[in-house]
Amino acid sequence: MGIFRRKIGIALSGGAARGLSHIGVLEVLEGLGVKPEAIAGTSMGAIIGSFYCSGISLEEMKSYVKSMNWKSFLLFSDLVLSRTGIINGRKVEELLKKFLGNRTFSSCRIPFCCVAVDLVKREKVVLSEGKLIDAVRASISIPGFFSAVHLGSKILVDGGIVEPLPTEAIRKMNIDFIIASSITFRRDRDKYMKVLSEGNDYNKEDFSYKNENISKNKKDKIIKIKKPEGLRRQYLEKLSVNKVLDTSFSIMHEELIKNCIKYADIVIEPEVGDFGFFDLIHGSQIIQRGIEAAREKIPEIKRKLRL
């Protein structure tokens, strides 16, 4: 009887800086001996996926993330008001060129594809031919932030607006088992809901208190929220354009993920909600979140892949 072997595909979600967690996920999978037949990426997932498939080691990626002066990188990015975005992307292109050079999809050691959206035809595009740098640059073009990419007759932007987790794309690459690395914002959302339900960080005047005898030796303080203006005021004071955009993209990401995740056989979800959209400065911590999330799934991975 032959040895059972799955044709494994890995889908890497978008998520801007938070997508660096995919490096940690891939590190754990690599340590387990998981050998993907193909990888698909969207947005930051496209960057990590293209690097990995073209032969760049995870250690090299981790070292670069740790050593790079991201504050300077972001500060001196090319902020220009163009027709299709406020950042023309030259700094990002320089970074991509450093790692990808003139590599093509056909030169990848692992088959790779990435997802973008064509504004002309208003449809998803799965890119799997030509230069990697052109395809990846298109896949990361967050609408309104990075200028769109003209590729042939197409005008391309970030694939995350239609398929933030490219499970449909990976299904078409001759694989029969999908491992998805999909960032989640659960920790940040749960923290906010905890504050809302428990009344933490409220001002004293926002509460009314009532003591009731629970037993002979114990009294519990029952807190009744009179009005939530304290929390609302505190939340509004912390809002900024960046926070509004960050939260809006996060909500859109989570809603779209629901349709993508159903195709995955194993879902690894790094908890990165407490990091910002462009929080590259904390890249090493974000990578660690990927490692932690993947480690939690080791028993399931071993069982389903018969490792």
Q: Could you describe the 3D structure shown?
A:
Helices cover 41% and strands 19% of the residues. With 307 residues, it is an alpha/beta fold. Strands 1, 2, 4, 5, 7, 8, 9 and 12 form an 8-stranded mixed beta sheet that branches. Strands 3-6 form a two-stranded parallel sheet. The chain has a two-stranded antiparallel ribbon with strand order 10-11. A hairpin with a 5-residue loop joins β10 (207-213) and β11. α1 (21-31) packs across α11 and α2 runs antiparallel to α6 (132-139). The longest helix has 20 residues, at 241-260.
In short:
By secondary structure, this protein is α/β, with parallel strands linked by helices. The protein has helices at 21-31, 44-53, 58-67, 70-75, 90-100, 132-139, 167-171, 186-198, 229-238, 241-260, 283-296, 298-305, and strands at residues 8-12, 38-42, 85-87, 112-118, 123-127, 144-146, 149-151, 154-158, 177-181, 207-213, 219-225, 266-268.
- Counting DSSP E segments of at least 2 residues, the number of strands comes to 12
Low-confidence residue ranges: 191-196, 199-227
| Average pLDDT metric | 81
Work out the radius of gyration.
22 Å
Our count of helices gives 12
User: What's the story with the biggest beta sheet?
Assistant: 8 strands, mixed
Strand percentage lies at: 15-25%
**SS-based class:** alpha/beta
Order of helices and strands: EHEHHHEHEEHEEEHEHEEHHEHH
Amount of helix = 40-55%
Distance between the termini: 17 Å
Backbone shape: globular
